[in-house]
TrEMBL record, chains A, B:
The keyword Glycoprotein does not apply. It comes from the Bacteria. Keywords: Carboxypeptidase, Hydrolase, Metal-binding, Metalloprotease, Protease, Zinc. Its EC number is 3.4.17.19. GO terms for biological process: proteolysis. Gene3D superfamilies: 1.10.1370.30. InterPro entries: Peptidase_M32_Taq (IPR001333). It comes from Mesobacillus selenatarsenatis (strain DSM 18680 / JCM 14380 / FERM P-15431 / SF-1). CDD domains: M32_Taq. This is Metal-dependent carboxypeptidase. PANTHER family: CARBOXYPEPTIDASE 1 (PTHR34217:SF1), METAL-DEPENDENT CARBOXYPEPTIDASE (PTHR34217). Belongs to the peptidase M32 family. Pfam families: Peptidase_M32. Binds 1 zinc ion per subunit.
């Protein structure tokens, strides 16, 4: 009898939970579409008006996330008694909704509203400051944002380092304690590799990229490769924006963007492949997770691993271009007709320290992240102050990359992330590279013909592996569970270090 | 003291009402965008999944419309005591919300759900039936839809004719009693004019349209004229769909579509001008009505008057082509280089009875509507039965247009409207023509240089008049109030009859 009553309570809590979870997921799907629409195709005069409608729906979704009903259902369902009755997927849904609930519920509504106003103003101030190279104008906003984040981490709580509370938002379960050794190893080996590369006299010539590539031809080429590498064009779109991005609406409607620059043919090609990596991930999530909290990728880092894997491990490999280079030459006979494949391949992998993260090569990119990671950690721990950032930034750039920008616009002001409060976000980019290299190591073992497949343009065998081991799971597993399940071990920096060493040793004859 | 208490109650009801009205309007704005997205650009595999998310938001908006809170606020605010405190706009908002509330509240939720399932299936059945010329397959669905509509009109209530309850949904306040004399006059005079046109030996030659017009050039021309005739391209978009339509998202984001057929250059041009008429209306609604129930056009008929006015009264006028024809010739030198303006103008206004409504000319179009109006009225009144429709359809076509289709696909099965339950909708099209002609009569009085302005490509003076007298008001006035305010008199068929008589007398030398 006791047992039966229990069942009843759990069942009705579960029903309520599923109803709320579906509604929030529907609203998030719509919000995804709206965000894409406003960035990609909405007429500009309507945007500020539409922001109000958008805000109403966002608020509605947020209210459901932290509603009393949700709290009650979660509290009933997260007892050990209830867990006996729940399958893996339901437990994962509860885990994720509970995380959102606790995190959002903990911050007072007034604080959230103030922060929303602050970040909106901070974004304008940042844009202006970057344009005018005027850090002082941005400083008061940045200070307030850091102050808010410091308060927030105290509310969220953490065990060792306050930055853990921020990391957890983007990479659930990750801590400074786990991340520091990985990043130190990556940073030190990358800095050493960079030094050796700079000393090499066997350098690729990047002059082949310093000529105009007609944009219409670039579009043709990008639209040609996109379905071949695994992106389903009937379950997605490719559009153009200044800042490329991927936006899922649902698993059969995933929209990516790229940008075409006449004087930089690499930008569109690798931008498209990168966003395709994000897109293919979303397109292959288990359809049963559709309209639940599990319908998205496992974390920012795991997501980034899929885009980086396709962009770098696949798209910047010699075998990739063995297959695609003749087609690229057909598109650009004047520019590349007389350029040998090897020269082209080496040029696409040229390493050159530069000031701007988003333009960095595969090796120095991680060093850009290390600058930001060290700074964010120290800011949150109160070890440094925002007003000293320009100097600290330049010193770290000099330290890690051997160059320092002459303006703050090319330095500390270059990224949008802090202005929207995204502290804790940057590590995801390098985590993505670490995950990707570890996945590469495993996939090469499982598919000994990995590079031969690429050379033959057979990407489906690779996409099948990724779907089987990563994509299908959506948010079912935590990032750590997922990488252990997929590769048999916890995240380890050795694979990326080794991959970079091997790749550049060959390209630069080290 | 009593007075003060009253004030307090009204004030809080008003506050609640405005909050709900804004939220519903925001949701409707989003639903408009979603509908556009799914029709125009969404990847096809994602649509059936997205329909669930869309349905969740639609249900949410509907629930608010008929919520207890809304009912209470409306009941407090629609008392004579309250009305003393309310301005014209608030009263109009209450009028509109009360209409939605009463109409939606009156139909039981189960009935609405059943009807939604029915129309979804009916639409599939209709598509199949039209494709296979199989009326019998569609008949059971049509019978159920009519049965539902008959029940609904009894619930909605009506004074004289049951069809009044359906008319009211599309043209608030309109009745069979008012409409019959207008339509009879229009029908009889149109049939007579058609007879005389067919007897004329001075016929325009439409052969100039029976040749290919390259689609890229058509696009250029359409994009060229659109901003010139008053459509703000920064507050809207032009896209392509098989069935052109206009969709407002908000007053600064109005999206229209057109279609390009290589063998029918008129289709895109007049389709674009027609939809631009709808779009310009929405773009010029008072921004203060944004995010309220008043943010849209006054009725289907008034909306159609704006599209028809621009398409026919302006776009098919001789003066319009005096201005634009040289540019059109530039776009199509091979096709039109040797065709005189007068021959082109007459050809665009050629009258030819045909089976398909959407392809009909300006004169016979209304006769197509009369066929549908007479049938709908008789169906709802129980004077005819659905199973007899093919024969009735053909007889009426013969009666009004002098031709009868040889297949039901070209006859009674051609329109989508009945399959979604849109009985009462068709009259809006001819109402639009009637309103448009009455507006033309008034605008020519107010702007004696009306046709000279068109000839000089000066459309702003005309759009300013329309904005001042029609567009700005959104839903502030009922259609009848609006036409009286704009033209000084109630709707009258004489203006359209006279306009058609004058126009075709000249073109066909009657």
């Amino acid at each position: 009898m006791e047992q039966k009553v229990m069942n009843q309570t759990i069942m009705s809590a579960l029903e309520k939970f599923n109803e709320l979870d579906e509604k929030i997921s529907h609203f998030n799907s719509i919000l995804g579409l709206l965000s894409w629409d406003q960035k990609v195709i909405s007429p500009k005069k309507g945007r500020s008006i539409f922001a109000n409608a958008n805000g109403t729906l966002r608020t509605e979704a947020f209210k459901l996330t932290v509603s009393e009903e949700m709290g009650e259902a979660l509290s009933t369902l997260s007892t050990p008694e209830a867990e006996e009755y729940l399958d893996e997927a339901v437990k994962a849904k509860i885990r994720e909704r509970l995380k959102f609930y606790n995190r959002s519920k903990s911050i007072p509504a007034a604080m959230i509203k103030d922060f929303s106003v602050l970040t909106s103003r901070a974004n304008d101030a940042w844009e202006e400051a970057r344009e005018n190279n005027d850090f002082e104008k941005y400083l008061p906003f940045l200070e307030k944002i850091i102050e808010f984040k410091k308060k927030a981490v105290e509310i969220y709580g953490y065990e060792n380092h306050p930055y853990d509370a921020l990391l957890d938002e983007f990479e659930p379960g990750l801590t400074v304690e786990k991340l520091d050794p990985l990043f130190v190893k990556l940073r030190e080996s990358s800095a050493d590799l960079l030094r050796r590369i700079q000393e090499s006299s066997y350098k690729p010539s990047v002059e082949i990229f310093e000529q105009p590539y007609p944009i219409e031809k670039q579009k043709d080429f990008n639209r040609y490769i996109l379905p071949l590498i695994g992106f389903d064009m009937e379950a997605g779109r490719l559009d153009e924006t200044v800042h490329p991005f991927a936006q899922p609406v649902n698993t059969r409607d995933v929209r990516i963007t790229t940008r075409y620059l006449e004087n930089n043919v690499r930008s569109a090609i690798f931008g498209t492949i990168h966003e395709a990596g994000h897109g293919i991930y979303e397109q292959n999530i288990n359809p049963e997770f559709q309209d639940t909290v599990l319908q998205e990728g496992a974390s920012f880092g795991i997501h980034e691993s899929q885009s980086r894997f396709l962009e770098n491990m696949v798209g910047r490999s010699e075998e990739f271009w063995k297959y695609f280079y003749p087609k690229l030459q057909e598109h650009f006979p004047e520019q590349l007709g007389k350029v040998a494949l090897d020269d082209f391949y080496r040029a696409t992998n040229a390493v050159q320290p530069s000031f701007i993260r988003v333009e960095a090569d595969e090796l120095t990119y991680n060093l850009h992240i290390m600058v930001r990671y060290e700074i964010e950690k120290a800011l949150i721990a109160g070890e440094i102050e925002a007003k000293d950032l320009p100097g600290i930034w330049n010193a770290k750039m000099n330290d890690y990359l051997g160059i320092a920008p002459s303006t703050d616009s090319e330095g500390v002001l270059q990224d949008i992330h802090w202005s929207f409060g995204g502290l804790g976000y940057f590590p995801s980019y390098s985590l993505g590279n670490l995950y990707a290299a570890q996945i590469l190591n495993k996939i090469k073992k499982d598919l000994p013909d990995f590079y031969e497949s690429i050379e033959q343009g057979n990407f489906s065998v690779i996409q099948d592996w990724l779907k089987e081991n990563i994509h299908q799971y959506g948010m079912l597993y935590t990032p750590n569970e997922l990488i252990v399940k997929a590769t048999g071990e916890e995240l380890n920096a050795d694979y990326l270090v080794q991959y970079l060493e091997e790749k550049y040793s060959k390209i630069y004859k080290l």
